[in-house]
Amino acid sequence: MSVESCEVVAGLKLLAEGPVATVYAGQWGGAEVAVKVFGEGFDRETTASFDRERKALDTLRAERAILPADGVTELPDGRSGVRMELCRGSLGGLLGSGKALAVRDALAVGWTVAAALAAAHQVGVVHGGVTPHNVLYRQSGELTLADFGLALRRRFPRDPMHTVEYAAPESLREDTLSVTSDLYGLGAVVFAALTGAPPFPHRTGQQPGERILQVLRDPVPPLDVPGIPPGLSEVVGRLLAKDPADRPQDAVVVAELFERMYRSEAGHNDVEDEFDDFAGTAPAAPPPPPSAPLSEP
C-alpha cells in the first residue's frame, strides 16, 4: 500500500467529526482532497486487509458510483488517515432538516447506491455501513457511495447506536455485515430519502434498548408518499425485511429496478415497469445524472 508522509497532504482544515474519525480537507499533488483520520494507527493486519479491499475496488475505477480510497497517510502523532477525493456534501446533510427529496432524486439515490453495491459485491467487497452520511455528491454533482469495506470497521468499531436506524437486524444481533445487510442499508437510505426520516427514527425519551427492539421487531412503516412509482413500496419493503433470506439477494437486479423506475419517472417510458423479479443477471446500472436539488449543498 502507498503510505505517504503527513507532509504530503498540506493545509489540513477540519471538515467534520464522526464517531471514530475526523475528516479534513487538504491539498495533495495540486488537488483538493479529503483525509479521514482515525484515532490510532493501522496495525499490520488492518493494513493488509484494507489493502486487499482497496486493490479490489481499484479495478472498478470506471464505476463512478463508487468513491475509492486513494491512499493512506501516516500523521506524526501515529494516527492513520485515508485519502480520497473531496466531495461537496452528503445525503445526510441534505436530510438533516427532515425534508424529503423529490421522488426522482430519491430514485437517483437508490440507483446509484445499488449500482455501487452491485459492482463492489462482484469483486468480493462488502460495504458494511450504508447510511446517508456516506452517500456523497462530487464537485460535479454526481452521486457516489464512499467508505467501503470491513477492515476499518473491524479495527475501529462504531457504537451501534450511532447508526441504529440504518443497521440490519442481524447486524445489531450478531454484528453480521454482509451483502444482504448492505441491501438493508440501501432500503433504509431510500426510505429516508423519500420520507425525510429513516424507517425507525429516534423518539424523544427512547432508551437504547427500545431503539434496538424497534428495528428487530416492529414492522416497517408503509411508504405513504404521494406519486411514488408502482412497485417502489414493495421493493423498499423487501429490502427492509427482518430476515436476510427474505431480501433480494443480488444488488445487480435491485439496481436495474431502480433504473427502470428512475427512467420512467424522468419520462423515458421505453422501459417496462416490472418489479416482481428479484432473480436474474441484469447489468449493473451507471449512476444517473443528478437533478437540481442534489447538485446544490
Automatic annotation (TrEMBL):
<protein>
    <submittedName>
        <fullName>Protein kinase</fullName>
    </submittedName>
</protein>
<dbReference type="InterPro" id="IPR051681">
    <property type="entry name" value="Ser/Thr_Kinases-Pseudokinases"/>
</dbReference>
<dbReference type="Pfam" id="PF00069">
    <property type="entry name" value="Pkinase"/>
</dbReference>
<dbReference type="GO" id="GO:0005524">
    <property type="term" value="F:ATP binding"/>
</dbReference>
<feature type="compositionally biased region" description="Pro residues">
    <location>
        <begin position="284"/>
        <end position="297"/>
    </location>
</feature>
<dbReference type="GO" id="GO:0004674">
    <property type="term" value="F:protein serine/threonine kinase activity"/>
</dbReference>
<keyword id="KW-0808">Transferase</keyword>
<keyword id="KW-0067">ATP-binding</keyword>
<keyword id="KW-0547">Nucleotide-binding</keyword>
<keyword id="KW-0418">Kinase</keyword>
<dbReference type="InterPro" id="IPR011009">
    <property type="entry name" value="Kinase-like_dom_sf"/>
</dbReference>
<feature type="region of interest" description="Disordered">
    <location>
        <begin position="268"/>
        <end position="297"/>
    </location>
</feature>
<feature type="domain" description="Protein kinase">
    <location>
        <begin position="9"/>
        <end position="259"/>
    </location>
</feature>
<dbReference type="InterPro" id="IPR000719">
    <property type="entry name" value="Prot_kinase_dom"/>
</dbReference>
